[in-house]
Amino acid sequence: MPKYALLISPRAEAAYFHQAAEVAFAELSGAVDVAPEVLSHGDMRFLVVDVAEGALPGLLRLSFAQGAFAIEGDAMLPVAQTPGFHLHPDFVWGEKYRGKTNETLTQLLINLALQQVDRPAEELTLLDPMSGRGTTCLWAMRYGMRSVGIEQDKQAPVDIQRGLKKWTKLHRQKHKLSEGWVQKVNKRGAGKYLEFAAEGVSARFITGDTVAARDLLQRKRFDVIATDVPYGVQHQGRGQRSALEVLCEAAPGWAESLAPGGAMAIAFNSYQPKRVALLEAFSGLGLEEVPVAVAHRMSESILRDVLLLRRG
Ligand SMILES: C[S@@+](CC[C@H](N)C(=O)[O-])C[C@H]1O[C@@H](n2cnc3c(N)ncnc32)[C@H](O)[C@@H]1O
């Protein structure tokens, strides 16, 4: 059985900065039983694994993987395998806007959570409880997962709709766009939603405060929760709430929204909130932490990390 080398993509180098190889190693380690080896060739970096060829489409879904090569003697032969995603890649990468979560990091969050859930992605549902303009939900559709996002910014669905209309026109993609209201709306949650469906999967973007998630979601539960939380102070009318204050209030609702056997991946700036404070916010809610070493420095003031939790 040949070994396979997975090329670390320039996208991953850009997303994870100096820690790209470490993040890739941690992500791959969650997907295979034997520890990968690191291999450099000029400027290219690879992770080498001993797996059957049938495992490659799954491994090519890892956020760092550009492609796979079979190692035969001194030669590395490209393998014609694909990750088998739905929809065109620019469904996720196409729109650029301020505050967008890096697409590669978003894919990492989904993968880390999926590695904890022992069912195929196509059977699962995903929630992003702070969904912004929808990067996680769009990724979920590429994996074949039905998804729901909650975002407080009322402009978000307007922007999402504009982006989707542009994209479907460009790709002549058959689709359905609809709007509605969730049945039960509490004082803090606006409850209006935009829904997009194509290729048998859908994403619903609900406007509202994530603190009211249980009502906005009509008590539905999800197999995967993946989200990138704000890296600074949130403006709420005239008051201001830190990311941690919002998360402390929202955590019980998020935990309740996670189905048994499900997993939650939260990206955060570990300077604010600190990991220990974030963990504390989720303590006593029936979730257990899964250690994962994917922290990477983005700038002097942002050391991005991921908290991975699962419900047994
Ligand atoms: C880091 S951004 C997420 C960006 C998103 N992943 C994307 O790519 O578009 C965090 C988001 O959380 C939203 N947010 C903050 N507090 C919230 C709350 N209480 N309820 C709902 N959304 C909230 C912010 O408006 C912001 O859009």
From TrEMBL:
It comes from the Bacteria. Residues 100-270 form the Ribosomal RNA large subunit methyltransferase K/L-like methyltransferase domain. It holds the Pfam family UPF0020. This is Ribosomal RNA large subunit methyltransferase K/L-like methyltransferase domain-containing protein.
